[in-house]
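Running log. JK asked me to keep both predictions on one page so they can be read side by side. First protein, sequence followed by its tokens:
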Amino acid sequence: MEAGDVLYEVQGPQALLTVNRPKARNALSPSVVKALMDGLERADADSAVRVVVLTGAGEKVFCAGGDLGQMTGDAGFLSTHEGRRSYGKLLARFQEVRKPTVARVNGHALAGGLGLVLACDLAVAVEGADLGTPEIDVGLFPMMMMALLQRHVGRKRALELVLTGDRLSARDALSLGLLNRVVPAAELDGAVAALAHKLAGKSQSVLALGRRAFFTAEDLPLPAALEFLASQLSLNVLAEDAAEGVSAFLEKRPPQWKDR
């Protein structure tokens, strides 16, 4: 494991990225955002990595959002603005990475920290975790992560969260579709490992194709989405792993993926 604001460790088929600022509630500083981006790039380039898991150091906070102590920059307004845009680029990078991503929500996920949870494909949280967008209480608005929140819940619930700053319990967040699992703290590692193992056992080429198609189709009108997805299915059936998967099914044996 490498030290720094973000720890990077390969554990079998998974790359574990850990935001490592427990004294600052794992807040998102510019260096954390850059290190997370670098970690995603590194995991994406490593053929041995099949799943990326994101978590926070400690047992209380996954990520409390942006570091308010570093809100103002000393490099000029436009340069500081470009620095803030890097968080939005990070959220987009989670969708662009070829590997499936899982958030291991070990504690509270607030503001930009909730954005990281929503940016991951899947999320498993401990029972005691709170999730929410409390920025309004300090005179700010959850601008960039709001784009992901809008895509996860309906307009009324999204507006209620960003306008009131109220926190959700993990169980309430699960009911809204912000999480996939909620488990006792003692079961968190096992639940994440089981999910990561399941994802690692799939064809990585087909997962990459399917994830890209999912995110592209999400913002298309229905007729355009169906037309686009038809083209992606035609690409899918030409993959070697598609032929292997069908053969394995017909022959009643486990598939041997070549990831191509």
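And the second, directly underneath as requested:
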Amino acid sequence: MIWGAIGVNQRVAPVVFQNVGQGRGNGVSADRYINQVLHPYVVPLFQRYWNCLFQQDNARPHTARATQDFLRHKNVNLLPHPARSPDLNPIEHFWDIMQRRINALARRPRTAAELRAAVTQLWAQVPQQQINDLVLSMYRRCAAVINAQGGATRY
């Protein structure tokens, strides 16, 4: 499992979770998410850029009480994500860009280590303006969902 963040004139290098799915549950626990992502990456970013919003979806580690309490305690402002709304997060479109770039490689990754290396390399190659355009489209995305009364949009 890989986590990453993008923003206007920002990107946080991908974080690879090791041994996901081992033990209880199939994914990343809230504690692991806090310790491997929020504390080392998100909090320092928000200490530098205090006037921004952090967007997550409704994945269990994101909505866990421990995660919410941690973010509140660290003064990380969250963009509210309604329980039943389409995923408007620009990072999803960024992951689509990454998938297309990986598929276009002459030699596609065959191991987890090769995939990790490819993602890290390709992540750095996406033009920042393309990321900025994705993030700045949030206003249009939200307006489209409101106009569609929560229904499907072109996003």
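Observation for JK regarding the second prediction: The longest helix spans residues 30-48.
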